[in-house]
Amino acid sequence: MTDNVQVPGYKLIRQIGEGGMATVYLAMQESLDREVALKLMSPVLAANETFCEQFMKEGRIAARLTHPHLMTVHDIGTENGVYYLASEYLPAGTLRERMEGLSTAEILEIARDIASGLAYAHEKGFVHRDVKPGNIMFRSNGTAVLADFGIAKAMKSISAATMAGNAIGTPDYMSPEQAQATPVDGRSDLYSLGAVVFECLAGHKPYQANDAYAVALMHVTEPVPRLPEKHAWLQPLIDGLMAKKPDQRFASGEVFISECDKLLQANPESAAAVREQRSGRRRAVRASKVGASSSTSISQPVRKVDGTPGMRTALIGAGALVAVIAIGAGGWFLMHRQGAPGPIPTQVDNVPPNQYVPPAPPIPENNPGLAALAKLDVPTLLSRGDTYLAHGLQNYGEKLDFPPGDNAIDVFQEVVRREPGNEKANQGLAQISTYYLNAAQSALKRGLNTATDDFVDKGLRADPKNAELLKLKAQLAKSE
Q1: Which domain holds residue 352?
Q2: Are residues 271 and 340 in the same domain?
């Protein structure tokens, strides 16, 4: 029942999960008329001042993590002593629910998705601390998404006794350094990902014992587990992810993906299956976009998100809190919108050319998208930039600043890198910065400082010397 639970701005539809730390509801965010997963922290946690402070702090930081393989956080706050977090609703379930019957190609694709999200988060200085099958979820197009960023660190500030027996992390997937309560970095998450991949391939957890403490000890003392013979060719991935010492593991999620590609190149038959898996996903994505464009309803099938005992459903992950003000902020990017109203004009059609020439951005060696731009001629780049800009202004910011190497900002900046005085490219960057300025100002009026800061950062990427954006940035800094 939801009669006794009220969070302003949300209409609770039904409970979809409950655990020792939180209760999760399917809810309607009334301002945007969309379904969300609304997680309400338990009264036990809410009564702990340290947790409440950490929950709000880490939740706001995690909400700035915008990546296709990290769950999007829409809102976080407190009302009458109730701490809540709203995230995108993913009815396609968790890896725990679909683990049986996955093909090798599907397992590798899921691992690559999560490694990509982790690489981004780690680069931003954020460690998840609880990578496990229940925290890996799926969008309707098959994309794997890591949830529960932010909360893991907040939970760590509370003693196990305070949380009524709920241990921090999950022993089955816990890195040796977590088990020993020593400092962790991103390589701890990679270890946990390795344990997940091992379970998917082998059909059982890496270490098994009668109690959680024994399992945790095995992660510290036992050798890296060995895959069954039919998957032995993938053992180098497990070795690189689950090495006992962090400095012996893959240095990042990107390194793991690279090593995965090398193994696939050495095994052509398996590589062909993976390529087919990716092709099938692309077809599903295209089909979902067609369906979304013709839909007039945001309704999705309602189903239980995670029915496992003692659930701490990963419905609060990471992404952009900026989505909270999607339409009112001048048309924000709703990557998976359905039936949303048209964009609000941003009044950027007649913006004068930008007088500031951004410095030539370096081209990271590990970003094939940016490297590919360097191979295109200026007319082609300008045409692509114009296309992305027009699309973004009419489609909630889509393609303005994401994905890396394939967005309007990167395209126009590549032109400016070669031709600093190119009027068309500078005009495009000025329009983008004005778009984000409008969105930031609208967010600020609603008191959404995190969203405002995110918009400001995006606008300054297009025009680092935009006076109004810099003023907003300084204003936000003073308020912190």
Answers
A1: 321-479
A2: no
- Cβ atoms of 376 and 428 closer than 8 Å: no
Span 439-452, mean pLDDT? 76
Residues 6+ apart with CB under 8 A from 180: 220
Tokens, residue 337:
């919108």
**Chain CA centroid to CA 236, Å:** 27
For the stretch 162-214, pLDDT in tens is 333 333 457 899 999 988 888 889 999 999 999 999 999 999 999 998 888 88
Element (H, E) at 152: helix 151-156
Rounded-to-integer distance, Cα 234 and Cα 225, Å: 12
Q: Is 29 helix (H, G, I), strand (E, B) or coil?
A: strand
pLDDT in tens, 306-329: 333 333 333 223 333 333 323 233
DSSP state of 224: P
Question: CA 375 from chain center: how many Å?
Answer: 30
Look up the pTM and report it.
Answer: 0.57
What is the distance between the alpha carbons of residues 93 and 99, in angstroms, rounded to a whole number?
11
Distance CA 90, CA 138 (A): 7
Structure tokens that stand for 202 in this block: 């082998």
Same domain, 273 and 352: no
Same domain flag for 99 and 206: yes
Coil/strand/helix, residue 464: coil
In a domain, 57, yes or no: no
Helix (H, G, I), strand (E, B) or coil at 34: strand
Per DSSP bridges, beta strands 82-88 and 136-138 are: unpaired
285 and 204 share one domain: yes
- Residue 388 corresponds to which amino acid? Y
Q: Where are the alpha helices (DSSP H) in 395-448?
A: 408-418, 423-445
State percent of the chain over pLDDT 70: 71
Q: Which two tokens stand for residue 326?
A: 């999607």
Q: Which residues are catalytic?
A: 130
Q: Tell me the C-alpha distance between 261 and 335, whole Å.
A: 28
Q: How many CB atoms sit inside 10 A of residue 240's CB?
A: 19
